[in-house]
Design brief:
Radius of gyration: 19 Å
Largest sheet: 8 strands, mixed
Number of strands: 8
Strand content: 5-15%
Order of helices and strands: EHEHHEEHEHEEHEHHHHH
CATH architecture of the largest domain: 3-Layer(aba) Sandwich
Helix content: 40-55%
CATH class of the largest domain: Alpha Beta
Strand order of the largest sheet: 3-2-1-4-5-6-7-8
Structural class: alpha/beta
Bound molecules: nicotinamide-adenine-dinucleotide
Length: about 290
């Protein structure tokens, strides 16, 4: 299948790689050569790691050669499926869906990897709302098993079936979610993380205590506060705001101490400091490798 992937960031590169590993021809589009180069570098590094572990069905170079890059979505005119993974911004995604609708054949499915933006809003920007759905991969895409398939109110049965079958063919486990704020993943995960911040603020326990209760007591592979650092505290605030607004309930308001860390520029691992300090001895000994949002 000829697959278009829009966005060559953390998720776009992972999605392009995953489709290429399953034998598809991929065209990855981003706004500039630098973004595409960075994306291809991360794909090469990930393929090399998987190759070392003998987890590739073909030579890494052959898989990478299935991915072409471009800086304009107009090259996607022959695509048979497009997965959009650009910035989590309704304006950016809305414009992209309008452009993709103009560029691609009318029967092509346009999927979004959005974590929280309503699918029906994106569908409204196209003349094919029945062929728009969410295909929400988890980070890192080549490793994580789940794909949350989001069914908008106008997504057709055929579109849903196609995306579900495709996710299975990629070796993933699809779960269908309704087009409700946060879908399933963030509706359940983010309030737990937010509650951990509220408990921290009330001094119910230290950050280490809270994380240890959830790892050793609940068998979570990583505590909620470390996970928040991995996801990015700014992303956590943004998703809680989507839940608060979308569900109209103050109980989803981002925790004040979470907001404070973001205002102070402490965004988590990506900024070197969040709940934990990654430049000092409080770095977790075994750095967790998985995040999701
Ligand atoms: N990072 C995660 O853990 C995670 C997990 C699941 C879903 N998501 C979702 O995936 C999407 C991408 O997230 P990310 O973490 O990869 O972001 P990112 O910032 O790493 O990458 C986004 C890329 O999109 C590109 N882009 C922006 N506007 C574009 C346009 N008009 N045309 C083409 N490319 C454009 C940017 O240049 C950038 O390279 C978001 O919707 C996010 O919510 C992220």
């Amino acid at each position: 299948m000829r697959v278009g992937v829009v966005g060559a960031g953390t998720m776009g590169a992972g999605i392009a790689q995953t489709f290429a590993m399953a034998g598809h021809d991929v065209t990855m589009v981003d706004v500039g050569a630098a973004q595409l180069e960075r994306g291809m570098k991360s794909i090469d590094a990930s393929l090399a790691k998987l190759d070392e572990k003998r987890k590739l069905g073909a030579p890494a170079r052959e898989i990478a050669s299935r991915i072409r890059t471009a800086t304009d979505v107009s090259v996607l005119k022959d695509a048979e499926l497009v997965v959009e993974a650009a910035f989590e911004d309704p304006k950016v995604k809305g414009q992209l869906f309008a452009d993709l609708d103009r560029v691609t054949a009318k029967d092509v499915i346009l999927a979004s990897n959005t974590s929280s933006i309503p699918i029906d809003g994106l569908a409204s920007r196209t003349g094919r709302p029945d062929r728009v759905a969410g295909m929400h991969f988890m980070n890192p895409v080549p490793i994580m098993q789940l794909v949350e398939v989001v069914r908008g109110p106008r997504t057709s049965d055929e579109t849903l079936r196609t995306i579900v079958d495709l996710a299975r063919a990629l070796g993933k486990t699809p779960v269908v979610s309704a087009d409700r704020p946060g879908f399933i993943a963030n509706r359940v995960l983010m309030p737990m993380i937010n509650e951990a911040f509220l408990a921290l603020d009330e001094k119910v326990g230290s950050a280490e205590d809270i994380d240890t209760v959830m790892t050793l007591g609940m068998n979570h592979p990583i505590g909620p506060l470390r996970l928040a650092d991995l996801i990015g505290l700014d992303v956590c605030v943004a998703v809680m705001e989507v839940l608060e607004r979308g569900l109209g309930d103050k109980k989803y308001a981002p925790a004040p101490n979470l907001r404070d860390l973001v205002s102070a520029g402490r965004l988590g691992r990506k900024s070197g400091r969040g709940v934990y300090d990654y430049a000092t001895a409080t770095v977790p000994e075994k750095a967790p490798e998985k995040a999701t949002a």
